[in-house]
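The step that takes the researchers longest sounds almost clerical: writing a folded protein down as plain text. The outcome of that step, for a single protein, is printed below.
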Amino acid sequence: MKAFMRLLASERLKLSRAYIWLLIPISPLLSLLIGSLYNLDEYPSNLHYEVLHSATTTLHALLMLPILTGIFSAFVCRYEHSGGGWKQLLSLPVSRTGLFIAKFVLVAVMLGVTQLLFAASMVIAVNFQGVEGGVEWAGLLRNVVSGFVACLPLAALQLWASIGWSSFAAPLAINVAMTIPNMLIVNSETYGPYYPWAQPALAMIHSGTMDFGAFTLPMESMMITIAGSFMLFFAGGLIYLKRKEI
């Protein structure tokens, strides 16, 4: 455990020298701006919360959250890709399993903070708009947690890709390219649930506000698919790192 905590502290120290932490509040701030400026007057008062939730969540979950997941995963491997960093690191007496888990934990922490800030932005927007009944805490907590869980398979996949590619920019470019089709893929009940980049949106917007495509699938089925994807990608990335040549 002490060895793992040292690895975790070392990985955190690497990130402290970068400005990656400044990216964490970007999506929540955009959601807050959208939620605060959205015109609710054309909707019945009993639908204000659902409309506001959909407005603030769509951009965050459909586009920003998958892109941020890829950026976070790439950044935790950034230093290893420069100056033969992987050779230096893997030649040290460190556990490759612990190293992979430490990098993944850091990505998960950044995603968790992003989701907490998104929840805060939703609370502020609801109070600013004076929505009748206020915040639906149970639903908000469920959406934030399910969105976080849905990001974990993508984080494992992107971490795997970032370890495998010698280029820092290549995994980022591919992640953005794979995120853009989300707007079409979520319409597919057949393919949407299995597409890692679409899973955060399906988990977070799955609240009765959408009744088409993959949004109509039961949340239980979505979570089973997400759990299976996570185990597959996490195991794949871990095995790849353990077999990676120095």
Q: What stands out?
A: Residues 36 and 125 are 5 Å apart (CA to CA). The mean pLDDT is 87. Residues 96-129 form the longest helix (34 residues). Residues 2-243 form one domain.
